[in-house]
Design brief:
By secondary structure, this protein is α+β, with helices and mostly antiparallel strands. Helices cover 33% and strands 33% of the residues. The chain has one domain: Roll (Thiol Ester Dehydrase, Chain A), CATH 3.10.129.10. It has a five-stranded antiparallel beta sheet. Strands 2-7 form a two-stranded antiparallel sheet. It is globular.
């Protein structure tokens, strides 16, 4: 099953029109990413302050399908996918009451924090990607069985 993160939309997340400000959707997705790392046993303090390796986002996009309002209870599902030895992408689906309201993607590259050159993933990220891949594939198989029954 894909990793899920539950979050309520707060007033501070919204704009003058009363809907979630577009950039805050990516911030919410990043919160889900951090929670999935922590749930995998990765120490976030060490991960984000590591002096030797970093995982900058090199691409991001969001598709807004419906407005998201203050008080909405979000479920953010994330599905990371390995794109190579030094790149991964995370697909996010954000739902409110089982209705898909937004989809997002972030693409990350593993780099040496000092030289800023690409490098292969450390073992803990390979493990995180593998665990999430298996969980996502299992959920997709379960979903396909439900559809055919």
């Amino acid at each position: 099953m894909p990793f899920t993160y539950n979050r309520s939309v707060r007033f501070q997340d919204t704009d003058a029109a009363g809907v979630v400000y577009f950039a805050n959707v990516l911030a919410i997705c990043h919160e889900a990413y951090e929670e999935s790392l922590a749930a995998s046993g990765i120490n976030l303090k060490v991960f984000f302050s590591n002096p030797t390796v970093a995982f900058p986002i090199v691409h991001a996009n969001v598709d807004f399908l419906r407005p998201i309002f203050c008080g909405d209870k979000l479920i953010v599902s994330l599905m990371p996918q390995k794109l190579g030895l030094d790149k991964f992408e995370i697909a996010y689906e954000i739902t409110v009451s089982d209705v898909l309201v937004a989809k997002a993607i972030t693409r990350h590259v593993c780099i040496d924090a000092i030289s800023r050159s690409k490098q292969e993933f450390p073992s803990e990220i390979n493990q995180w990607l593998e665990t999430n891949r298996r969980d996502t594939e299992e959920a997709e198989r379960r979903k396909s069985r439900e559809i055919t029954v």
